[in-house]
């Protein structure tokens, strides 16, 4: 048995090495860069050891806390609404009727569109107050076009994230509903469980694991949204719609400060791990209570 176990470990060793090289070496380099002063546009200043000055700089910057708040608000709002909509649409399309497969296909299309493309389409073709669909509808109604990305930047970003990521939640929850034993549902209906009781006492508990997976993966992916913000608002006005990934990008490609950008990236990873761990612990604790 031990020989077989040793052989199996040797078989997965190349994969572990590749994963370690691809993921851990860049992160270690990022940590190293976070302790240096390096302005790319000022090579005359050289590269100097900064200690924890980069961390002090971002942790004493009021803009940083606004960005953290934006990131957490986006996650909480988008995660909650995506989960609810994923369940609702899953229940609606978990039945047989003419054209259901076409509807399912159309519904999941936004998930397969790149973030940057989503941002460009909505910014130029849909919500542009001068040339987009927003302009023509507003003119038809006799009202002033709304500058969504100017006046309601963060809200608009959250709506676009929800629009793109709800199909992802739908796919996972739909898989759970499709694999739900029909005998249990029929027995519950015979016992008088219908409507809300059937949903809350039978269906949702049976797909609890699928919901947990959808929310955990959704949490990670929504936290690292970048392209959508980059092509629509550029984090503005000011930093009102910026999140941590874009804040790190701005520190590097606007201020050209490698050390500050690396420090923001390290803090972002740490906050992400904390949020994911707390969320996972909360879900596991909730599941244990339900059992």
UniProtKB/TrEMBL annotation:
Domain of life: Bacteria
Keywords for this protein: Cell membrane, Membrane, Transmembrane, Transmembrane helix, Transport
Topology versus the membrane: Multi-pass membrane protein
Domain ABC transmembrane type-1: 68-277
Keyword Transmembrane helix among UniProt keywords: yes
PROSITE patterns linked to this entry: ABC_TM1 (PS50928)
Annotated SUPFAM superfamilies: MetI-like
Annotated InterPro entries: ABC_transporter_permease, MetI-like, MetI-like_sf
UniProt entry tagged with the keyword Iron: no
Record-annotated membrane-spanning stretches: 12-36, 67-93, 105-125, 152-177, 211-233, 253-276
Compartments where found: Cell membrane
Family, similarity comment: Belongs to the binding-protein-dependent transport system permease family.
Protein name as catalogued: Carbohydrate ABC transporter permease
Lineage: Bacteria, Bacillati, Bacillota, Bacilli, Bacillales
